[in-house]
Design brief:
- The protein is mainly α.
- The chain has 14 helices and no strands.
- The chain has one domain.
Length: 319
């Protein structure tokens, strides 16, 4: 394209572009911050975790299929399909299913604190996939954050021996989402933001349709208007529209910088849980959340020091 040469010379436009990446990331984080409370609403309303985790993906896949048919974007090719499978495994299957099962036994605020590890985990995966070299302080603080999160979950469960299965599910959800976020952010630079999540949803749809059918057969979903509205939000926004903004932000990048925006997600989620679910804000939750967020913030900011010294190329295609 003829614009490539002028874009290369127009270096002053780099800063506004990166700022827009942060803003897109913030929009996605706000959308995702309702996911845990609304999942809890659906679980408490009588919907099974299997139905919530798979059904929301089916709803999103239907929307994605319509969008792809109407716009007819170019097909992914070669290794992109394998990378899309990794995105689907992380954010379409792994995170929704694991959090749905975990929230049958833990509060939304407890889950939010454990999921606060996600910014650092996303940054670690972004560094690994991008072949970058962060300072030692980055790795140290990421590890400390993981230890703090495990310690918080153990104390909430009554000691190391009381670490619940739900906490392990949440840690697995963090890892799954981090893989899906990092790989999806890279693919967004090649395929586009909404295209990436759409192809991932379509790719996972046969599995999720089967799982949803099994869930309905085992336990037909129940609930009133509030529970179904919560489920609709999970399918339309948490599973689909929120990724338009999130992957757009990660695609603009740098991913380690945009991932820092996730630090506000557990704070928002705990606030929504208090407002919508009337969950108490205990000192343990506040202190645990603060400690995990502080460790994640330090880890990500340590990486930002390197990024600021060596800016990443702005090769994102405008979609």
């Amino acid at each position: 394209m003829s614009h490539n040469s002028s874009a290369t010379r127009s270096l002053p436009t780099a800063l506004p572009t990166r700022q827009s990446g942060l803003w897109w990331g913030l929009v996605g984080v706000v959308a995702f911050s309702f996911t845990v409370p609304f999942t809890r609403v659906a679980v408490d309303g009588g919907m099974s975790p299997l139905f919530i985790g798979s059904g929301r993906a089916v709803v999103a896949a239907l929307l994605a299929g319509v969008a792809l048919v109407l716009t007819r974007p170019r097909l992914p090719h070669g290794r992109q399909w394998g990378r899309l499978a990794a995105v689907a495994a992380g954010v379409v299957v792994g995170f929704p299913m694991l959090t749905s099962y975990a929230l049958t036994t833990v509060s939304a605020s407890h889950a939010a604190v454990v999921i606060a590890l996600l910014p650092a985990a996303t940054a670690v995966l972004a560094v690994v996939r991008g072949h970058e070299r962060p300072p030692t302080r980055f790795w140290v603080m990421a590890a400390v954050g993981a230890v703090v999160a495990v310690g918080f979950a153990a104390l909430q469960g009554g000691g190391l021996g009381g670490l619940h299965r739900s906490d392990l599910l949440l840690f697995g959800a963090v890892l799954a989402a981090a893989v899906g976020y990092a790989e999806g952010g890279l693919l967004a630079r090649e395929l586009g933001a909404w295209q990436t999540v759409s192809w991932a949803l379509v790719l996972a749809s046969p599995l999720m349709v089967g799982a949803a059918g099994l869930a309905i057969h085992r336990q037909p979903p129940t609930g009133g208007p509030l529970e179904w509205l919560a489920f609709a939000y999970l399918g339309v926004v948490s599973m689909y529209l929120g990724f338009f903004a999130w992957y757009r932000g990660l695609g603009i990048g740098p991913m380690t910088q945009v991932s820092q925006v996730q630090l506000v997600q557990p704070v928002l989620t705990i606030g929504w849980a208090a407002l919508l679910l009337h969950e108490p804000l205990t000192w343990a939750t506040v202190l645990g959340g603060t400690a995990v967020i502080a460790c994640a913030a330090t880890a990500v900011r340590a990486r930002l020091g390197v990024s600021a010294a060596r800016p990443a190329p702005l090769d994102v295609r405008r979609r």
